[in-house]
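[job 0412] stage=fold_complex status=start
inputs:
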Amino acid sequence: MTLSDRYNSIRKHTEHLCNALTTEDFVPQPADFVSPPKWHLAHTTWFFEQFVLNDHLPDYKLFDDDFSFLFNSYYNFVGKRVFRADRGNITRPGVHEVFEYRSYVDMHMQILLQLKSEELKDLIELGLNHEQQHQELLITDIKYILGNNPIFPVYDENIDWEKQENEETGFVKLEEGIYEIGFEGEGFSFDNEHGRHKVYLHDFEISKSLVTNAEYLEFISNGGYTNFDYWLDEGWSWVTENKIEAPLYWHKIDGEWHNYTLGGLEKLNPEAILTHISFYEAAAFAAWKKMRLPTEFEWEAAADKFNWGKRWEWTNSAYLPYPNFKKPEGAIGEYNGKFMVNQMVLRGASCATPPQHDRKTYRNFFHAHERWQFNGIRLAK
Amino acid sequence: MTLSDRYNSIRKHTEHLCNALTTEDFVPQPADFVSPPKWHLAHTTWFFEQFVLNDHLPDYKLFDDDFSFLFNSYYNFVGKRVFRADRGNITRPGVHEVFEYRSYVDMHMQILLQLKSEELKDLIELGLNHEQQHQELLITDIKYILGNNPIFPVYDENIDWEKQENEETGFVKLEEGIYEIGFEGEGFSFDNEHGRHKVYLHDFEISKSLVTNAEYLEFISNGGYTNFDYWLDEGWSWVTENKIEAPLYWHKIDGEWHNYTLGGLEKLNPEAILTHISFYEAAAFAAWKKMRLPTEFEWEAAADKFNWGKRWEWTNSAYLPYPNFKKPEGAIGEYNGKFMVNQMVLRGASCATPPQHDRKTYRNFFHAHERWQFNGIRLAK
Amino acid sequence: MTLSDRYNSIRKHTEHLCNALTTEDFVPQPADFVSPPKWHLAHTTWFFEQFVLNDHLPDYKLFDDDFSFLFNSYYNFVGKRVFRADRGNITRPGVHEVFEYRSYVDMHMQILLQLKSEELKDLIELGLNHEQQHQELLITDIKYILGNNPIFPVYDENIDWEKQENEETGFVKLEEGIYEIGFEGEGFSFDNEHGRHKVYLHDFEISKSLVTNAEYLEFISNGGYTNFDYWLDEGWSWVTENKIEAPLYWHKIDGEWHNYTLGGLEKLNPEAILTHISFYEAAAFAAWKKMRLPTEFEWEAAADKFNWGKRWEWTNSAYLPYPNFKKPEGAIGEYNGKFMVNQMVLRGASCATPPQHDRKTYRNFFHAHERWQFNGIRLAK
Amino acid sequence: MTLSDRYNSIRKHTEHLCNALTTEDFVPQPADFVSPPKWHLAHTTWFFEQFVLNDHLPDYKLFDDDFSFLFNSYYNFVGKRVFRADRGNITRPGVHEVFEYRSYVDMHMQILLQLKSEELKDLIELGLNHEQQHQELLITDIKYILGNNPIFPVYDENIDWEKQENEETGFVKLEEGIYEIGFEGEGFSFDNEHGRHKVYLHDFEISKSLVTNAEYLEFISNGGYTNFDYWLDEGWSWVTENKIEAPLYWHKIDGEWHNYTLGGLEKLNPEAILTHISFYEAAAFAAWKKMRLPTEFEWEAAADKFNWGKRWEWTNSAYLPYPNFKKPEGAIGEYNGKFMVNQMVLRGASCATPPQHDRKTYRNFFHAHERWQFNGIRLAK
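[job 0412] stage=fold_complex status=done
writing structure:
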């Protein structure tokens, strides 16, 4: 596939994910960590306009001067921006204008791709991978918006992600020794994966399957949410302050557990792989099982030996730089490095990760309490 | 005008106010005290469905069972409701469905009006006056939504409300004595105006004009916002904690004062009547002028002697029951009485008040810090 | 009694109230609205030093320059001050130094009183009345500090304030007409009582007794705290957000109601007069009884016709200026006027009010949710 | 030294640290993370009573039943406890009673030590190390209490900790390879140091000196606190929200930097080793220097090659379990393991660490924003 085709395909996929939305669905921001779908559509476009067209296409004229202010996410280098929590209050430009913005930028990108495809390959790849990351956020944000509506609207009744099951059982055992960690080879990767290096791992075993709803229900019925002894101290505060009693999107209706899925509200499927849990819940579950979560290094070393890709898997590693990590200069340097404190690494990929956007060295990261992504649990011992 | 014509006219006016809105504009709730336009359209309809059709039209079938949950505002008697702060996150039902809801209820109201117009007159009048109150909130909420957008969209360039000027000057003097206060006579009035009663007023003078932007600019340039001595203690806290330096919607751009109006961002007109100020600001301005705000009783006693109706006028009266105030039984009793603490009375009417919805005994009320309504200042001494 | 004797007597009484305290008891500030006993002792002294000695005693030397910063309460005119919420963290100067400060100021006040007793009479009277107000706050703050200690220490086992009972029953009726309100005559009074003026009152009846614990228990057992219909809207929010289920200091232990008194934890006495309730609770109780609270004007007009003085009595009047209220110039003007918004008036006096500090025109005021004073309920209809 | 002598010596040292305190100084809790000195004295005693005497001394009678509730810190296993933020409001038991409590427990501990010194050695060592940890917190909490008093009291004018200087300069270089990490050998250690294991380290250099005030002043004068590019994202939020402009206890007075020390307010000594900075500040300083902080593994591997012990040194390692970490059963298991999320490791020891309480495998940990400990910066590259 040419870069130009790849560009078109990925950009179209973002829009495709919005097919089922009403105009109203594009607007709200029900929580600080969620962004309106309209904002995702515009911000990914802004990324190409700001970092690619504006710098590299001769005589390029911005679609609208205000947009660089409205759709900047967190790049301090690029100037002022709308406060994150106010994204849901900006009704204009509207959805229609945002789609026009996309068309305008896409048209100019096609021109640029004819001119400088080779020279700008890396930068454009970064933009495309950035867009793919937002595709996953887009779908999880849509789920959050619809899933917090008391009438539980259906997004797409043909999606069965929440019902996916394991294909394997048992544990894989790895021997003590030196392992190589980090990205190497051809193809795109993020700066936080770079600096391939050696780590020393001790003997460990890691599960070939992810924890299921049935297993988690057993944790709950064994008092998992009421026994402080399973929990990290800050996890226990999170449970008690927020009155957490089950994974996100679970609802007990007339005594029976249901969960909200992208296909609507459904009875909980016990065989399906658990999802939408926080690191705190993952760690508590593991403690209850008298096991633990793997480190991100154990996970990567063992990843060829089990199936992965249905849920982002919480590891017991904090998100920190690899040895010799170098923050790039300028705005692109704000992409990853500045988030390297107080977050935990997730490995693998999920049902909502776009095709070809997964690799075993990928380092995803979220705060320990966050659970609106399709997160799950793989145990180690 | 028949009640049926009056019903149609008022209901249409609400929709007319939304003509200039995009679908996206109907959705957000940028502050707890603001409601989405979509919500106003639905809630006023819900009022007729819940309190009129459901109780009085034989065999009436609710448009949608979920709506009574979604569009209840604060009536505890009518059951659970969406948390006030979450109104902006409910994208479905959409704008189109809300208009269908209005049509459905209007059609059934017309049937009912043929059957029981006389019997239900008072209740329907309450619903219409309720809708008129929401018309004013609708327009001020729209101004808040658009006015907090950094690109300052125009709502209607033909509206000149913020430019209105005084027609009179000087003071009116009233003599000490007993005055009668409260509603009396034909026509609609709210329960909080009832119980006409005597009050004893001492000599006072009240201005025939409202404070202008020019006068308020003088207050600002005399250090009005930096000298604690003019302010009530809680007003001074409000100023310092929120870094208040000017009325709402005022912006200093390149050294010159502008204000956001429904016609867009404009240079401040010094002759225009000041608006969008809090009670705290009104009281501080009066202190600086070595005058005071009138009580609501002084205001009502003098109201025939000056023009009013361009701005809601802060009085120095707390919102409290009149002697012999009776809270009606049931849900209708929640309309006014339960708010009678910690709010201040505003008298008169504003440029945003619907036609025929004003009378001199009308008691409007807001918290001392609220200023997104078209509020102004009339001085007394 | 000479002014000098009166000065000594009141100053000694403040110290007498602290006899039962340990050094540690003088220090903490368990809530923003509470002040440490040490602070009360110093602040009342600061008032005499700042407003009397410093201005009027030739060659007076401040006890310590830092004290004017440390012990200013809310007088913006007198310069910077310690944030109210930090008063409990200032361990030095210690209790001993504060008593030395008192002695030093008292000694110089005696000198001044020999010189200028007549000339400074009004200012010194203000200082003494200020000190008496703090005596009441001192005792209620001590109760709050000890009453929030899980081991419930005894302050003075001989105090029986919480057990006081009514001496009268029935209602007094007053006729419609003009009544004179406000202070008149000899002796001290605060500026907020001044401006004697006429008010027109309609017929009303007012109870000769205060509500008892037994009556309030009936309200509770009738679902008083769970039925929103009795409550003002902000009162209902206060109840639900703070999980209020009983008056302050009430504890249900093994199924039986106890209350913490200055004499320690005791079984609740049903015949005793209810105390430590908020305005919200007073208003809800009155609504449940199908009566109401009196206005402060009704209260004053009727006050000669019933016993009062055991509890501060919530009225349904907001704290607002009387006609012709004039705020004094300078720091003294900050005493009362700047608090005239968002608070409710209480009339009468309480068991904790110092002797000779009560009069029927006295206007006490607190926010609607505050209840650590000895507040009670008198009903009207 | 016998265990009995060691017990006495450590217990006396705690009391010795309080010699300079007034009774009032023992009471307050000016921030949630600070505990009153009185509480430290009692809590360390409670530890011996609860975990040693109560379980192991036949017929031991608790000093006071309430104390186990009042002086539990965070052990959920031991039942209810006073909310952490309320510790400063508990005036009784007083300081004198707390010293009696210490004597009572010490006396019984001496009896027990005669009986079962060998059998209980490990548990008593844990209690003594626990007490030593609180000695450091005691001194830093005292500094916080006095240092937030606007009159800046002196604790001990002979202490010169804040003036300590480096004794070495330059960098040490270590070669790539496998290193052994974790505690091994005789003597006490905490569970979080256990599980000696191999780590693979790449080449690195680490400074032999700690960052000085002069170097940090250069960072400040180079715009260190105003250039987002040096900061982690959450660090930048911390700086802007809290208006941080300098290390804790630094005050610019008449244009000159001073710092509050245990010896009182002093002019800043440029040659002294920097202290009281957060992890965010340490990381920003390192970024400005184009270096980085060492990991805790690098630190431990290199520790024999430089002097340490004057400041706790922030590492770029999150506080996480070592391979094969086992949480002990029961209350003792709450000591360390449950805090292993969202905190950063500090290595070394500080001027406030008690003698013999330091070792190179010791893992201290705090949140990234905390800076009231004697923290400093050692750079790596």
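[job 0412] summary: The mean pLDDT of chain A is 94.
[job 0412] exit 0
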